[in-house]
């Protein structure tokens, strides 16, 4: 199923968003799919198609829209080429802060609320790398809408900063799944422990795990792609959505 491109109005402009749906005309449960830090590209469309095939209405917003149009990035060289990496860090990352993206998430949820082909009002969310952080933050900022949040190979969920995302745990009502990479210097076993403790203290139903893979293992176009762990991710994600949305 090819995605349909739509535009969602936000407080700062118009966000290109890609829509994937399972076949049929009946209203479907909605899923917010937050991209990784390499941007919109064919590998994410393949993921959106597979997600939707599980019986969902999936939207994939371009979180870099404030930086203007761009060509798909090469996931195999973006971090190894100094020029490309500098471009990513100076042009795109400054427009993808959590405060800005939470404003956008409100617009995405408003869009879903206005669709007759979406089953209201529970929403699932998933994200990868950068999107994993966004997904976790969204569960805290919109607790009455997001009932399931799955973050895969996220980084920096736990820091020593006063605005560290793990401190938002008491605001979360969703069921939370975090699957981090064992090979990720920005998600250590000590950070895993602190995140698990924060969610436990807040009474959040959750699983926080370290999977044997490199950071970025899910999308099929990255050097870190791990087919076995990517399939495990699909099983885990779709089971979470089945138990919180489809039923």
The coarse overall form would be globular
Can you name the CATH architecture? 3-Layer(aba) Sandwich
Q: Note poorly predicted spans.
A: none
Per the CATH scheme, the topology name is: Rossmann fold
CATH class: Alpha Beta
Mean of pLDDT: 96
Question: In angstroms, what is the radius of gyration?
Answer: 17 Å
Structural class: alpha/beta
Structural description of this entry:
With 247 residues, the chain is an alpha/beta fold. The chain has one domain: Rossmann fold (3-Layer(aba) Sandwich), CATH 3.40.50. 34% of the residues lie in helices and 26% in strands. It is built from 6 helices and 8 strands. Strands 1-2-4-3-5-6-7-8 form an 8-stranded mixed beta sheet, with helices on both faces. Strand 7, helix 5 (189-201) and strand 8 form a beta-alpha-beta unit. Helix 3 crosses helix 4. The protein starts with a strand and ends with a helix.
């Amino acid at each position: 199923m090819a995605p349909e491109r739509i535009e969602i109005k936000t407080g700062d402009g118009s966000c290109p968003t890609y829509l994937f749906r399972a076949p049929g005309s009946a209203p479907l449960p909605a899923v917010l799919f937050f991209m990784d830090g390499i941007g919109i590209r064919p590998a994410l469309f393949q993921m959106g198609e597979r997600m939707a095939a599980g019986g969902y209405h999936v939207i994939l917003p371009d979180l870099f829209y404030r930086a203007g149009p761009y060509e798909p990035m090469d996931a195999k060289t973006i971090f190894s080429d100094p020029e490309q990496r500098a471009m990513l860090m100076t042009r795109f990352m400054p427009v993808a802060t959590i405060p800005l993206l939470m404003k956008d998430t409100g617009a995405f949820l408003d869009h879903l609320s206005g669709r007759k082909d979406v089953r209201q009002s529970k929403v699932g969310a998933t994200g990868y790398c950068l999107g994993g952080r966004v997904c976790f933050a969204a569960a805290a900022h919109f607790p009455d809408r997001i009932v399931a949040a799955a973050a895969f190979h996220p980084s920096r969920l736990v820091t020593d900063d006063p605005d560290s995302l793990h401190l938002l745990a008491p605001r979360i009502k969703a069921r939370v799944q975090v699957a981090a990479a064992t090979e990720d210097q920005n998600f250590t076993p000590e950070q895993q422990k602190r995140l698990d403790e924060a969610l436990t203290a807040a009474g959040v139903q959750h699983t926080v795990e370290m999977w044997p893979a490199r950071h970025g293992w899910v999308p099929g176009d990255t050097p870190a792609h791990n087919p076995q762990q990517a399939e495990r991710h699909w099983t885990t994600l779709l089971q979470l959505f089945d138990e919180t949305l489809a039923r």
